[in-house]
Amino acid sequence: MNEPKAVVFVVDDDPSMRGALGNLISSVGLDAKLFASPQEFLQSKQPEVPSCLVLDVRMPGMSGLAFQQELVRLGSELPVIFLTGHADVPMSVRAMKAGAVEFLTKPFHDQELLDAIHAAIERDRGRRHEAAVVDEIRLRYSLLTEREREVMKLVVTGRVNKQIAADLDVSEVTVKVHRGQVMRKMRARSLPELVRMADRLAVQQASS
């Protein structure tokens, strides 16, 4: 199965800059989608593929920084690379704190931008992969009965069958049966693997 082609979104109100960025991005085999304003970008449908956003800081209407904050508010995790014609340390610090990957001052070297784009796409690819893995684990977990979930919770804390049986007031044989079902339904090949799955579920629940 072929890896989906990565997309780089460019939002810049300057048509010549937009075109130059589009040509540069296309020259390394990436798909460039160009927008004249944040509003135009928000009205478009973004494909579910590894991607990043190259964003001009100073634009009429909504600034790049304000747009970044709006994307965060909307729950977008799209990595952002800022371009600016004015070196402004407080502005770049603010952008990076809000999750920007890079803050480049014009004129910049083409390779600088391409390196930042590749890093941003790899970050997004990793995030998407992790999200898909967690979704699959959550699906498996949803198939467990209430009792199996209780057993799993105790198993991953390191408790042995005898202790679990005492905790749940059931026989050891019953615990063994439930434990086997948990391993089968979660498709865990070992206890450490089951522990890692439980950790991922806990992190996801804590962040959602």
Describe the protein in words.
With 208 residues, the chain is α/β, with parallel strands linked by helices. It has 2 domains: 7-129, 3-Layer(aba) Sandwich (Rossmann fold), CATH 3.40.50.2300; 143-207, Winged helix-like DNA-binding domain superfamily/Winged helix DNA-binding domain (Arc Repressor Mutant, subunit A), CATH 1.10.10. The protein contains 9 helices and 5 strands. The protein has helices spanning 15-27, 38-42, 64-73, 89-97, 110-142, 146-155, 161-168, 172-186, 191-207, and strands at residues 7-11, 31-35, 51-56, 80-84, 102-105. A 5-stranded parallel sheet has the order 2-1-3-4-5, with helices on both faces. β3, α3 (64-73) and β4 form a beta-alpha-beta unit. The longest helix is centred in the middle third of the chain and has 33 residues, at 110-142. The protein is elongated, with a radius of gyration of 24 Å. The chain starts with 6 loop residues before the first strand and ends with a helix. The mean pLDDT is 89.
